[in-house]
Specification:
The complex is a heterodimer of chains A (about 500) and B (about 230). Chain A has about 500 residues and is α+β, with helices and mostly antiparallel strands. Helices cover about 50% and strands about 15% of the residues of chain A. In chain A, the strands form four sheets. Chain A has a five-stranded antiparallel sheet, covered by helices on one side. Chain B is an alpha/beta fold. In chain B, strand 7 and strand 8 form a beta hairpin. Helices cover about 40% and strands about 20% of the residues of chain B. Chain B has helices spanning about 10-25, 35-45, 60-70, 85-95, 105-120, 155-165, 170-180, 190-205; strands spanning about 1-5, 25-30, 50, 75-80, 100, 125-130, 135, 140-145, 145-150, 210-215, 220. The mean pLDDT of chain B is about 90. Chain B is built from eight helices and eleven strands. Chain B folds into two domains: about 1-120, Response regulator (Rossmann fold); about 125-220, Arc Repressor Mutant, subunit A (Orthogonal Bundle). In chain B, helix 1 (about 10-25) packs across helix 5 (about 105-120), helix 2 (about 35-45) runs parallel beside helix 3 and helix 6 packs across helix 8. The chains are: A alpha+beta (about 500), B alpha/beta (about 230). At the A-B interface, helix 6 and helix 11 of A face helix 1 of B.
């Protein structure tokens, strides 16, 4: 139930799943986000800057107009030095609907005059900040106060103390706000246009950019077990970002092909090795039945058949051993391993091959260096030693000797070596001797009964324990096989 | 007929040889490796070669192309453990005439060998006729004018070879080479004996002579006198 629920959740298309699933969607999202951020920044700075500049222009204009209001304050023609406002010279306001307002105070006698259009109910005191904004009757205004403005109309020779004025000049901000809004709208509109253009460009660019990837995928789709060649498209080869991908694809294909070929070769060899004894067996029995035969002929035929069956059985056993060793090497089999003495397994192997050695009058010397402890299945190690010993005895000379040495140094791996005095292995064969079914000289092994699997099994087992196996051979002098086992010094 | 078996598994080679001798009345030579096989195939006359592919000394495929390169038309039946398409195509393209996969049936092997011999000599039918003579290569029986003729094994082999090549002059050496294994030279004088035996059994009581002797050249199996 839970499983079904989960899969239903997965099939739901959410923005998140689209983003996770598509490079194009991700890139477009990034483009749109960055464009939007840019537009917002542009809008903010544009509006702020326009507002600031318009405001300073407005302030400068208001200052000039306030000064022209001050210029209209005159001394009366009496000796008291009283003042009056000469509004006959006042220029009419530019915007009749929202005219500017002003008020003038004198230092000594207070409010001198107000503009004629001063709205009722608007109270502006003569004290306060130089510049301020306020709202009256749904109209935004900008106010300016000028303090201690001298009366320009100075009568020469008058003895009274000169008056100074406080002027308040108020202008509606409607035009300023409109202009700021217009600037904002034009920024937003051009940003939107730019955004659309960028997204289209990005879509086109991404499609073009992903084209080599699609070509590469199409070529990769043509690779099969019959055709391992990957034809890299020219575009894909030239693109720097694709190079790690194409390189790893090429090496992966080479490795795959190698192991596939190996597997196929193994199957071919195994088929040959299995089918031949079956063919022999079948032909023996069929030719026995071809016509009536004497009883000794039947007997010989049955004996031959039994021999062939035994060979077949042996081959099967070796192949199963190899399969098991390789499974074990790949970690498919897990066993509880005990710490054992490597030297003891060597002794056991020497004992097991005693019969073969005696039949060839060969002597086996085992050089021991005390116990060498290693975590392993003793059967595995013995199988390796027996394989190597049998080879050494079989391919060594009649009456020769085989030297086995177990060397344990203070640091580093343990070395177990098997040295014979045989004909040696030709240099051309040496790199292949650990391959499955490899036989340097097929006719020779038929008489000695080998299948070409012993060394492959030994290698698989040694490698399963993290060790290595190597062969040195001097043609005419002999062969030395060396196994190194990684001994942990805490064991 | 003479057959060469190139097979490295001695017991298998021996079983095939026995079956061919007993079931086909053929002379059989055996080679156990590629080198020996190539030498025999190139130096002797065989009516068919049975070839194993995995051989010591020289690979069967290599041997096959060497034999074909030398211009020999001997039919080759490949006996192989490989039955994948690529291998089969490759060996047919290399000049093999037929193939059989291991493990095989000895009866099938014998039938394919016989078919290859017939085809090699341009005789599609397993029943060979010359005039009123009928030779059945499957049942190995001979009829002359509807009458059963009983022949010895060697007489049959001589007649079978001649019947595969009707109207052709077959020399005594050719007969010897194709009816005996590599020891054929020891038997040089027996051919006349078989020919006279055959003549007596086939031509007696018949107005038309079938086996003719061309002095110094050999024998001809033909209905009526050969034109010389």
């Amino acid at each position: 139930m839970k499983r079904g629920h989960n899969s239903a959740m997965h099939s739901l298309i959410t923005p998140g799943s689209i983003l996770r699933g598509s490079i194009k969607a991700r890139l477009i999202t990034i483009v749109v986000l960055s464009q939007t951020l840019l537009a917002a920044g542009l809008l903010f700075t544009g509006v702020f800057d326009t507002h600031k500049r318009l405001l300073s222009t407005l302030d400068a204009g208001m200052q000039a107009r306030a000064m022209s209001v001050a210029a209209l304050v005159r001394y009366a023609e009496d000796a008291g030095g009283s003042l009056y406002f000469d509004d006959t010279l006042m220029p009419s306001s530019l915007d009749r609907e929202h005219p500017d307002l002003f008020a003038v105070w004198t230092e000594r006698s207070g409010l001198l005059t107000r503009s004629a259009n001063w709205p009722a109910g608007l109270e502006v005191p003569p004290t306060g900040p130089d510049h301020w904004n306020f709202k009256f009757a749904d109209v935004h205004y900008r106010g300016l106060r000028l303090f201690r403005v001298p009366v320009l109309d100075r009568e020469e020779g008058k003895s009274f103390r000169p008056e100074s004025l406080t002027i308040v000049y108020v202008a509606p901000k409607i035009h300023l706000d409109e202009e700021v809004n217009e600037a904002g709208i034009s920024i937003v509109l051009s940003s939107l246009l730019l955004l659309v253009a960028t997204v289209l460009l990005a879509l086109w660019g991404i499609r073009r950019g992903l084209l080599p990837l699609q070509q590469l995928a199409a070529q990769a789709g043509l690779v099969s077990t019959h055709n391992w060649e990957l034809h890299l498209p020219e575009d894909a080869k030239q693109i720097k970002e694709l190079r790690p991908l194409t390189q790893s694809m090429t090496t992966m294909l080479a490795r795959l092909q190698h192991s596939f070929d190996q597997q196929r070769e193994f199957l071919g060899n195994a088929a040959h090795e299995l089918k031949t004894p079956v063919a022999v067996l079948k032909s023996t029995l069929q030719s026995l039945l071809q016509r009536p035969r004497a009883s000794q002929e039947y007997r010989a035929g049955i004996e031959h058949s039994l021999e062939d069956l035994e060979r077949l059985e042996q081959l099967l056993q070796w192949m199963l051993r190899l399969a098991r060793a390789e499974q074990w090497a790949h970690g498919a089999l897990r066993r509880d391993l005990q710490v054992i003495d490597v030297t003891a397994t060597c002794e056991e192997a020497v004992e097991r091959t005693r019969h073969l050695a005696e039949s060839r009058n060969a002597t086996v010397h085992l050089a021991k260096n005390g116990p060498v402890l290693f975590r392993a299945d003793p059967e595995d190690l013995q199988l390796v030693w027996v394989n190597l010993l049998e080879n050494a005895v079989r391919y060594g000379p009649e009456g020769g000797s085989v030297e086995v040495a177990v060397i344990r140094e203070n640091t580093g791996p343990a070395r177990i070596s098997f040295e014979d005095q045989g004909a040696g292995i030709p240099a051309a064969d040496l790199p292949h001797i650990f391959e499955r079914f490899y036989r340097g000289d097929p006719s020779r092994t038929r008489t000695t009964g080998g299948f070409g699997l012993g060394l492959a099994i030994a290698k698989a087992l040694v490698e399963a324990y993290g060790g290595t196996i190597t062969a040195d051979s001097a043609p005419g002098k002999g062969t030395r096989m060396t196994v190194q086992l990684p001994i942990s010094h805490t064991q | 007929m003479r057959v060469l078996i190139i097979e490295d598994e001695p017991r298998l080679a021996e079983n095939i040889a026995r079956s061919l001798r007993e079931g086909g009345g053929y002379a059989v030579d055996i080679a156990h490796d590629g080198q020996e096989g190539l030498f025999l195939a190139e130096s002797s006359e065989y009516d068919v070669v049975l070839l194993d592919l995995m051989l010591p000394q020289m690979d069967g495929m290599q041997l096959l192309s060497r034999v074909r390169k030398s211009g020999r038309r001997t039919p080759v039946l490949v006996v192989t453990a490989r039955d994948d398409k690529e291998s089969v195509v490759a060996l047919l393209n290399a000049g093999a005439d037929d193939y059989l996969t291991k493990p095989f049936d000895l009866g099938e092997l014998l039938a394919r060998t016989k078919a290859l011999i017939r085809r090699g000599k341009g005789q599609p039918s397993p029943v060979l006729s010359v005039g009123d003579l009928e030779l059945n290569t499957v049942s190995r029986s001979v009829l002359r004018g509807g009458r059963q003729v009983t022949l010895t094994a060697m007489e049959y082999r001589v007649l079978e070879y001649l019947a595969h090549r009707p109207r052709a002059v077959v020399s005594k050496t050719e007969l010897l080479e194709h009816l005996y294994d590599y020891n054929w030279e020891k038997f040089s004088n027996v051919i006349e004996v078989y020919i006279s035996g055959l003549r007596r059994k086939l031509d007696d009581g018949s107005s038309r002579q079938l086996i003719h002797t061309l002095r110094g050249q050999g024998y001809v199996l033909q209905d009526g006198m050969p034109q010389v």
